[in-house]
Amino acid sequence: MTHKPFDDEQLEHVLNNAPKLSDHRSKEDILNRLMADARLQDNIHLQEAMQEPIDDEPSQQEDAIIKKPATKSKVRNMQIYMSVAAVFVLTILVSTILKNNQGEQKDQASIPETAQYSTMQEDSAAKEAATQDEVLDSKSIVAEHERILSLRTSVYEEDVKDAVVFRIGLAGRDAESVPMTYVIPNERVATDFGEEKPSTLRMYEKYAPQIDEEAKGFTEYHPYKGELKEKEDKLIHVLPKENDYDVASATVNEYKGTMEDTFSDSEYTEVEIQNEDGTLYEFSQEGEPSQAMSLTNAKNFNYYLYHDTNGAEYLSPDFRQSFETVTEALTMMKNKNDDVYTSVVPENVTYTVTEQAEGVVVTFDIPLDLTSMEPIQATQLIEAMMLTAASFNQQLLLDNVVQESWEGFDLKGYLPKPVGPNKQFLP
């Protein structure tokens, strides 16, 4: 049974409220009982009491006959005896209580310590058993958590430290190409291709068929019809006589746009389009053999918001319209050019653009409070401007923004150049 230790106030309360005791025993009985107690044999007060004479007291018979009152000396002796007895009784009582409480406290203290030590041993063993798995999984868990929760949609250098980039242009409902950037872990690439670094064409042949384009709201377009092959630093596409790429000018532009989005920034410098007999292919809308399409030309685009049939949003060039300068490209982002692409710049937001040696600076006319916008819209505004600057191989600085950081971007300095738009992962 567990008892709480007494404190001073509790002990005083117990003693003050103890019942009043009355003792009808004679002093001889009390003294004899004390003398018989082995615990009091060495008590000096008891020894002194034993030496005092007790024969002066009248006998019971004399008390009955004479009935004389006790003298002051006798009364005083009786009080001494009673006081001594009371003191020793209380001493024994208090000592016993304190010993019991101290013993119980030690027992109670030892039990939790033992239990705690046992629990700590069990916890330590369990933690040691799980540590290795936790270390192995921690990086992937954190990366997956950040990937799901982040509002960023572009790919950055930090995303490809242990991965490979695979680019592809998906065909939208309005006959335009929307660039996608797939991040493929190195382990998967090594499993698929071994130790040898795969070419862009081999990666396309391996991964393009795995993309469910219709599920993403795009047209089923890849892999390309015909044959793709490499010739030194050139990519050759042999088109079959019957194909869907040469139906109208819009389909031709879509075809060339997807080729450019898929094979630019690769080891190939150009794409040559041929007939099955090896001659240059002639698109019906052009009326002459097609020239090799360069893959190294600068893509000086600005970025808008594209909505697919499923309602998903992607950052993409507006029908691949090109600009001479980054100032022009960033300034024109405020304009709405068609019904397919939406500007990421709110109507009430205005700014000026200046080009510096370190990069391009966008200064908002009124302090831009990103929290006044929907979080995803604010992030799209920042990333669209970053992608626009990156298409001119420049970094972007946003000036006169209320916030100093947003979605992991440090807005106090120049922002990093994105690797590519619209981060995706293979199934």
From TrEMBL:
Protein name per Swiss-Prot or TrEMBL: RNA polymerase subunit sigma
Keywords: Membrane, Transmembrane, Transmembrane helix
Segments traversing the membrane: 80-98
Species, as recorded: Lysinibacillus fusiformis
